[in-house]
Write a structure and sequence with these properties.
The protein has nine helices and three strands. It has 302 residues and is an all-alpha fold. Helix 3 packs antiparallel against helix 4, helix 4 runs antiparallel to helix 6 and helix 7 packs antiparallel against helix 8.
Length: 302
């Protein structure tokens, strides 16, 4: 049995990309731009447009709104500290704040995998969204509780820029066997099962696409599905490689690179893949821009 927490560590130091000192300014500008684009793409474009156009008040776009809300919260859990670590040498985070960040990171990350459904009626859509949120809440609680009960005697340097599961397990000076097994089982249950269910759904999609008589129609649909599948694979692939193994003792630099994909890249790609390539959504954007431009007397030509 793992002992009760008797940690001597009260703060953790987030190292971030301190090994790339000469690139700090450039990395800060790049990640700040990505963060702003992610927030703009998810909040300003998708949530605003979907809310104002009645044609988009369907179960599919309801899922997109929940996805956007999750992405904003998910990326905001880690990006501010990442940006801070690029401006200062290893900013400190308290033990309690680190545990809180860990919980919300796992909670929102576990809610994300249940976000790629088919078009369906609103009642089933609402139930699936509720299941997704409750799954995330429960999944975030257990590993965060296990981590908070570990002993941390020092050092207190977290190589990535946020309080994730693998780096915290590595820093513990107590037995982590039960914690590692808990993380492994939850990773299998949440990540792998959802990933294979998603792949299974694409098998049905492909079989339906193959029945489309038009060659151009099949090509267009395959292009859209291919983009969706690429984002799904990036998200699940990096998360599974990080968490689905019995012992999370991997190189810190590998952790850092992998974490960038599922915390930075996929939240940025989702608004583009799931909405801006959608014909109905693009038409809704044009309609909204015409209306806004008309209010201010600006002629909209697009």
């Amino acid at each position: 049995m793992e002992p009760q927490n008797t940690s001597t560590v009260t703060n953790f130091q987030l190292l971030g990309f301190q090994n790339l000192l000469e690139w700090q300014t450039l990395l800060f500008v790049i990640f700040l731009l990505i963060y702003c684009l992610t927030i703009a793409g998810n909040v300003v474009i998708i949530i605003t447009v979907v809310s104002q156009d009645r044609r988009l008040h369907s179960p599919m776009y309801m899922f997109l709104q929940h996805l956007c809300f999750l992405e904003v919260r998910y990326t905001s859990t880690t990006m501010p500290l990442l940006l801070t670590s690029l401006l200062s040498w290893g900013p400190a985070i308290s033990f309690s704040a680190c545990m809180a960040q860990l919980y919300f990171f796992v909670f929102l990350g576990a809610t994300d995998p249940l976000r790629y459904p088919f078009l369906m009626h609103r009642e089933l859509c609402t139930r699936l969204v509720a299941v997704s949120w409750w799954t995330g809440i429960g999944t975030g609680f257990l590993p965060s509780l296990r981590i908070s009960r570990l002993d941390f005697c020092g050092p207190s340097e977290i190589n990535p820029s946020f309080c994730g599961l693998p780096p915290l397990v590595q820093l513990s000076c107590s037995s982590v066997y039960i914690t590692e097994v808990t993380i492994f089982i939850l990773s299998i249950a949440v990540l792998c099962i959802c990933f294979f269910l998603t792949l299974g759904s694409y098998v049905f999609i492909v079989s339906s696409v193959l029945r489309i008589p038009s060659t151009s129609g099949r090509r267009k649909t395959f292009s859209t599905c291919g983009s969706h599948l690429a984002v799904v694979t990036i998200y699940y692939g990096t998360m599974i490689s990080m968490y689905v193994h019995p012992s999370p003792h991997v190189l810190p630099e590998v952790n850092k690179i992998i974490s960038v994909f599922y915390t930075v890249v996929t939240p940025l790609l989702n608004p583009v893949i799931y909405s801006l390539r959608n014909k109905d959504f693009k038409e809704a954007v044009r309609k909204l821009m015409r209306r806004k431009c008309g209010i201010y007397g600006v002629r909209f030509l697009y």
